[in-house]
Sequence to fold (436 residues):
Amino acid sequence: MKSSEYDTIPILQQEKDILEMINAEMDNRLTIINSLETRSTGIQIQNKHVIGIKIDRSNLTKLPANIGSLNELKIIRIAGEKIVSLPDSINQLTKLEELYLTANKLNTIPENLRGLEKLRYLELSYNQLEEYPESINQLKNIEKLSLAGNKIRTIPQSIKNLKSLIELNLSDNLLSAFPKGIGNLSNLSVLNFKNNNFEEIPPYLALLENIKTLYMSRNPIKDEEEKRVLKEKSTLNASNAIKLILNHCKKKLEVNVLFNYARDEYDYFQILEIANYFVQQKEIEQVYIRDQNPTTKQSHHINNLTKSKFVLFFASKRSIESKYCLKILNAARKKTLPIIPIKGEDISWSILSKLGLSRILGFKFEPDKLDSLMSSLYEYIWEFKREIDLYDKQKFQQDKIKFNLKNTIRNLLQSTQFQKGVTNNKQEFNKLFEDS
Fold:
C-alpha cells in the first residue's frame, strides 16, 4: 500500500499506526480488500475499524507488540511467513473469531489466551511447536483446532476443557497416546491423527459420543488384531467403520475396580499387595479400597461404586456377616456390576451360592499362591472386558450369559473329575466322536 493511499484510509490513527508497523515489515504490500477469501494480501475495513488481516508469503517476521489495540479485529490469516512468536497483547483481541497462522515458524504461544472468548477457529498447522500449548485449553468456545504438522509428543489432560470442539486435527506429529480427557470432548465430530507414532488404537476414542469421522492411517500399529480391525474398517461405510472402531476401543478402556472385604481381614487377604499389582496393569485405572482408620466414615468408599466397573468380593465368614459388605454387594447388583468372589478358607462355595455368588466367576484365595491369583484375576477381567459390553446394559446381560456358559464349560473340561471320566471311558468318547 502506497503511503499516499494509506493516509486516506478511514480508520482511527491508532489502528493506522499498527498497520504502518506491519507495512514496514512487509515492504508496504498491504492493500484494502473486500474479502479475505481472495488471494490478495491486505486488510478488511468495516465501520472505520480493521476487522480482518490477511498476509501470505510476504516475509513477515513478527506482529506489532500492540496488535491487541485492533480491538474490532475478527479474523487474522497469516500463512507462509517467518513469525516465531505472538505478542502477549493478542489476548486483548476480544472480538477475534478466527486465527489462522499456517506454515509459520511458531515455537511458542502466549500463556494467557483467556481474552479470546469469541475465538472459534484456531489454525496452527505446520509450525515448529514441540509441546502442545496448554493455553489453548483456555479457549472454551473453540470449535475447530488444527495443530497438524508440528512436533508435539503429548496432549495434556486439560484438553477436556474444550467442550465446544467439533474438529481436531493432530496429524503429522509425534503423538503415541491420548489422555483420558479427550473423551470429555462430547461435541467432537472429526478427529484426525494420521501419521503419528500410535502403536495401538487409542482406547479413549470409545468415549467420544458424537464422533463421525476418524482419520488414523500411517500409524505404526503393532497389534495383529488391531491391524485386522483397521483393514476391516477400510471395507465398511463411514458409520459402520466408526462403530467397529469404537466397539474395539471399549474393550480396551481402563476400568476402576472396587475391593469389598471385612476391614479386619485387610492383612489376611493381602489387600494392599493385590491393589498395588492391579494399578500397575495396563487396563486398570484405579483401585478403591477401604480406609483402615476405624473412625473414618465409609460412605466415600461405597460412593466409588458409581465410578467402578468391577467389584472384587473377598469372601469369608466375617465379610458375609458384615452389614457394610452386604450393602456394597446389594448396591453393586442394582448397578449390574460384575462381582468376582474370592473365597477365603473359612467359607464354602455352597454358602456363597446362597448369596448369589457363583463359583464360575470365582477364585480361591491361597496365600502361598498370591502371584498366580493376581495374574489370574487380571487375566479374567481382561477377557471379561473383551467379551462383555460394560457400557450397554441390555447387551451386558446377553454377553454375560454367554460368557458364564463358556466359563462353565471350560471349568468342566479342566476339572479333575472330567479328566478322570475321559480316562476311564476312552472307548465311549472315541466312539461318540466317530459317530458324529
